[in-house]
Every structure is written in C-alpha cells, then in structure tokens.
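Good morning,

Attaching, inline, the backbone tokens for the sequence recovery test we're adding to the shared suite. The designed sequence is right after.
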C-alpha cells in the first residue's frame, strides 16, 4: 500500500519528465536547477530601470510601487506652443498599474527547454509598464487645457498713444490637436525627459506679420507722430499736434494685407483743439426767422445768411498727405465751402409759411428747474419745419431728458411721494404743443393725459410725456408745411404753428364732468410727508369742431378720465414750521396762499384719453410708467 501511495504522489513530476526523457537524460540536473533557482521573475528583468529580477510577484509589486510611485503621482508638465501647463496624472486620467506590470514580467512557461534556456540566456529583459488611461477624464482635461493654453492668431498692428506710435507684435495662433494629445500623454507618462511633454498643436500664421508691421512703422507711423501739422484756414494759421492727431488716427489692413492709415476726419473736426480755432474763423449758416405782424400774417424778421465752413472731407484731404512729410513741408491749406441755411427767406415763402395757423399759451408758477427744463425743450423745438405727411415726435425732437442733454432734476410725485425726476416740468411743453396741434386741426397720433387733473391746464386738453414709454406724436395732414415757433419765460410758454390754414376755424367744446368721484383723506407723518390739497376725480368729454366757410364740416370727441387727488394731511410733529416755505412742487393746504415757484403736485401719469371717432384722430395708448410733469 505504501508503494502505491508514493507512486500516486509523484505523478505530477513523472508525467512532464516523460515528455522530456531525452533532455533529462542529458541534463536532468540543469532542469532541476532551473526550477529551484530564483523567484517568479527571471534574473535581469527591469521596469523603467527598476530591477525586479529573481523576485516573487509580491516583492516586485512592492518595489515598483516604492520606486515608481512618486513619479507616477508627480504633475505632468505639458508644453503647448510657448506655454507650459501642469496637471496631476489623476486629473489627466493616467495611472500606473503595478499588478498588471508584474503579470507581464513573470515567467511564461515551465517546460524543460524554457527552464534550461533561461539558465543560459544572456542580457537583461526590460518590461514595459502598464499605463491605464480613463479616456473620458483625459478628454475633458485636454479640452480644458487646450482652451486655457491655446491662443488666437494676432495680426501685427500699430497704435497711437499720447502722440507716439507703438507697434503691436504679431502672434501665431496655437491650437491643441486634441485627437493626438491623448496618445502623446500616454506615451510620455513616466518617461524620463529633459523638459515638458511637447503636445501636438496646429499653428496659424497672422495675416499681418512682423515685416509688414515694421514697414508701416518706418514709412508712416513714426513720420506721422514726428511733429505738428500746420494748416491755414480762411487766412488764419492752425497747428495740430501729434497728441491730437494720434487720437483720430488708425492703421488698418487693406485687402492686400498692408497696413494703411485711416484718419477720422469727423472726430478730428469735432475735437475742441481743432473745432475752436476753426469755429473762430468760419461761420455757421443761420436760418430765416418768420414772425407775425400785427395782422397775424407771417413776415421774415431775419432773412438768415449762408455760412462758410470746413467740411470733414476737406480737412482729411488736407491733413493726411502732410503726415509723412517733415519740416516746413508739414504745412497746408484747408478750403472752406459755402453752406446754405436749411430755411431761407425765399424757401419760407415758397413753402407757404404765410400765416398763423394756431397758437397756445400755458402759464405756470416760476421755479428754477422749470425755467431750465422748459427753456431747453423750447430751444430744441423752436424752428422745426414739419413737411406735409411727416410725423412730429416730442421724444425724438427733444431727446432724453438727461444732464448731458441740458436738463436738470425737477419735482414730481410717484405713488404719493415726492421724487426727483430728470426733466421735471416738460409736461407744460407737451400740453402747449398738444393744444397748438388741437387748434391747427392736424392729426394727433399719440398722447396721454395726467392721471389726475392739474388746474392750470384745460380739462381734457393736456398731455404729458415719459421717455421710452409715452410720447406726444402728431402728423401734419394739413397739406402745407408747418413752422414751429416756441417762446418761453420764467412763467409762461407759447407755441405757434405757422403755415397755411386748412380750416377757417377750429373750435373746442367741453361737456360737464361726469362720474365724479370724491377724493379720499389720508394722514401721513415723518419728514417725507407733504400736504396735498384734495380734488375730485371725474370724466370729461372734449370736442374738436372743424369749421369751413362758416359751416361745421367735421367733429371729433375725446374722453378723458381723471382719478381723484386725495387730501393728505401730516401729523403735527411732521408739519412744517409756521411761516416756513412750502416744499418745491407741493400744494399749500386749503385756504393758504400758494408760494411763488410752487404748484399742485403732478403724480405719475397714465394715458387715459381716447378718441370717440378713432379714424379722425387715433390716439396710441402706452403702459403706465413714471413720467415727468
């Protein structure tokens, strides 16, 4: 039984030996030596220079982790064009798989020929490390790095700053080739190198290179800034220095890729350093000024005159050739041209501006902000000519009521509280214009009344405006041009339309107040409380009657709804001291005299006026918004 057992236990050795009986016969000792010599990995095996020969799997894995781990975790430096970016291998999706690397390094067979062959093999065996890459992570990282490190191609350019020319160097465009970047990173990972990994890029050459930039600097830019140019305008000498010239001078590429000069003649002519001396020796045209004689007929009070001016084209034509010259050759003459007025006396007569078509006056309490804002609006409106079929717009003509446009803050009420509003007071101009249009018999297109009635304006015939939300617009359907004449004082405003009458007379009618709503009473306190006199709300209908040959030929009716103006009283502790002046824009308490410069409060308006016969006068509606009084 014992011998049988021994035979069974040795079958694993006997069977392979049977296949190599001849070899064992010749070198059985060598085979046994090969089997017992070394560990799982053959002598002379290394990974990236780390010797793991003769080691077991566990030993080799520990040694590789210790030797290569710091390098595997070190940031990877990448050169993209001229820039170097660094990123952790984990952020790039890269890692060293030591287990798989050792698997590749272990013995591959135990046959006699293989075992004995390794005993007599000479030389070292280098095993490639197994590098893992998470492609999703790697692509996302490459996208980010490419976007950060890439650069757009930049043409060479020339700028002018403070009277000096400066060259802007051209720059190559660099774009990371993301499709090749992953393979480059995988191959370069853990490989010793003298510097960063050079990433694959595409380069784009600038259209304007260094050679063209240098030529433009030598031939134009530097001579242009070498000194002033001297001009003669109407016999007077004008010097323009490099600092002023440079502010209006650029160099731009042409179709052939050459940098050529571009002078902003309009900007140069408007520059105060040029405009002032030119303005002193030239003259602007002056329009003819129609006026009314004692019979209400139009006569030309001022026939106007032609002007002599320097045009943008003439200035550019004179200056540009001088910029590449030197010394006395940087001098030239600028021609002036005659400029006719927009409205001459002859043109006024030809257009049929012969009589007063309509006129209306609004009076108001004096206040500094009203004087400024109404005066500025009048300045912008006066002298306008509206041709037949043309539309006139308050907002388009007057512009936004800003300090830059000559307006100051005025007083208005918004949601029951006094606030400052740019251009406060211009509703007086809108109301005056609306009534001049009303009595001229021309077609209103858009207007809106104040939300509650203001006593100094005619019921149902008043208007307000708000920049961006509510305009006053009308169309000249009289068949003849209309000349707008506007005049104002500290306490009154008159607008007249001069032209040729279409109707003999325009009459206004007004019905009784209906749907009368009493005002409420409110009490306030604190420093913001202001006394407000009460006024009922009501509806009113206003008619416009067109008379020709003594007969009514047309009739229009407009209805306006006014909300009540609530009575506001303030608690004693918040009441003003007896004898103290009333706040600007505030109404005095009932029975008190109104201080100069004050008026009933004008609240946030909303357009409420609609025509009864819309084809005769279509009134556009606008959304409610804060509006200036």
């Amino acid at each position: 039984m014992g011998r049988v057992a021994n035979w069974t236990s040795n079958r694993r050795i006997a069977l392979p030996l049977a296949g190599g009986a001849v070899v064992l016969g010749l070198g059985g000792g060598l085979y046994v030596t090969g089997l017992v010599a070394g560990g799982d990995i053959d002598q002379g095996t290394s990974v990236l220079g780390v010797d793991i020969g003769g080691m077991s799997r566990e030993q080799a894995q520990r040694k590789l982790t210790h030797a290569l781990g710091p390098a595997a975790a070190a940031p990877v430096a990448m050169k993209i064009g001229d820039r170097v970016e660094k990123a952790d291998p984990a952020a790039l999706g890269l890692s060293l798989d030591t287990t798989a690397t050792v698997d590749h390094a272990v013995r591959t067979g135990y046959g006699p020929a293989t075992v004995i062959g390794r005993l007599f093999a000479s030389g070292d065996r280098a095993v490639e490390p197994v590098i893992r890459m998470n492609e999703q992570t790697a692509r996302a990282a490459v996208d980010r790095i490419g976007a950060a490190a890439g650069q757009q191609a930049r043409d060479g350019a020339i700028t002018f700053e403070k009277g000096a020319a400066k060259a802007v160097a051209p720059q190559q465009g660099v774009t990371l080739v993301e499709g090749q970047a992953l393979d480059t990173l995988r191959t370069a990972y853990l490989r010793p190198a003298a510097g960063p990994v050079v990433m694959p890029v595409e380069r784009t050459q600038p259209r304007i290179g260094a050679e063209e930039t240098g030529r433009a600097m030598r031939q134009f830019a530097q001579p242009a800034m070498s000194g002033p140019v001297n001009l003669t305008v109407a016999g007077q000498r004008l010097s323009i220095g490099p600092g002023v010239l440079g502010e209006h001078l650029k160099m731009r590429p042409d179709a052939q890729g050459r940098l050529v000069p571009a002078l902003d003649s309009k900007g140069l002519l408007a520059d105060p350093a040029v405009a002032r001396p030119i303005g002193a020796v030239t003259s602007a045209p002056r329009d003819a000024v129609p006026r009314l004689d004692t019979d209400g007929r139009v006569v030309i009070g001022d026939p106007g005159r032609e002007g002599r001016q320097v045009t943008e084209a003439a200035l550019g034509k004179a200056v540009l050739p001088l910029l590449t010259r030197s010394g006395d050759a940087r001098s030239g003459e600028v021609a002036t041209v005659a400029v006719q007025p927009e409205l001459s006396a002859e043109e006024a007569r030809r257009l049929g501006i012969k009589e007063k078509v309509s006129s209306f006056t609004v009076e108001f309490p004096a206040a500094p902000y009203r004087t400024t804002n109404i005066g500025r609006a009048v300045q912008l409106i006066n002298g306008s000519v509206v041709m037949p079929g043309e539309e006139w717009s308050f907002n388009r003509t007057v512009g936004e009521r800003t300090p830059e446009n000559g307006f100051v803050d005025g007083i208005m009420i918004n949601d029951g509280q006094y606030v400052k509003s740019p251009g406060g007071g211009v509703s007086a101009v809108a109301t005056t214009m609306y009534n001049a249009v009303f009595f001229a018999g021309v077609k209103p297109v858009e207007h809106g009344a104040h939300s509650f009635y203001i006593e100094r304006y005619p019921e149902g015939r008043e208007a307000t405006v708000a920049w961006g939300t509510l305009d006053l617009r009308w169309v000249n359907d009289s068949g003849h041009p209309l000349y707008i004449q506007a005049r104002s004082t500290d306490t009154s405003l008159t607008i007249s339309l001069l032209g040729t009458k279409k109707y003999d007379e325009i009459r206004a009618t007004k019905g009784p107040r209906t749907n009368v709503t009493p005002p409420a009473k409110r009490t306030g306190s604190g420093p913001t409380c202001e006394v407000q006199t009460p006024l009922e709300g009501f509806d009113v209908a206003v008619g416009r009657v067109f008379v020709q040959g003594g007969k009514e030929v047309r009739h229009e009716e407009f209805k306006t709804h006014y909300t009540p103006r609530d009575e506001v009283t303030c608690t004693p502790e918040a009441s003003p001291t007896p004898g103290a002046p009333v706040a600007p824009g505030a109404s005095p308490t009932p029975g008190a005299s109104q201080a100069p410069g004050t008026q009933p409060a004008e609240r946030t308006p909303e357009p409420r006026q609609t025509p009864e016969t819309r084809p005769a006068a279509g009134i556009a509606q606008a959304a409610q918004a804060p509006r200036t009084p």
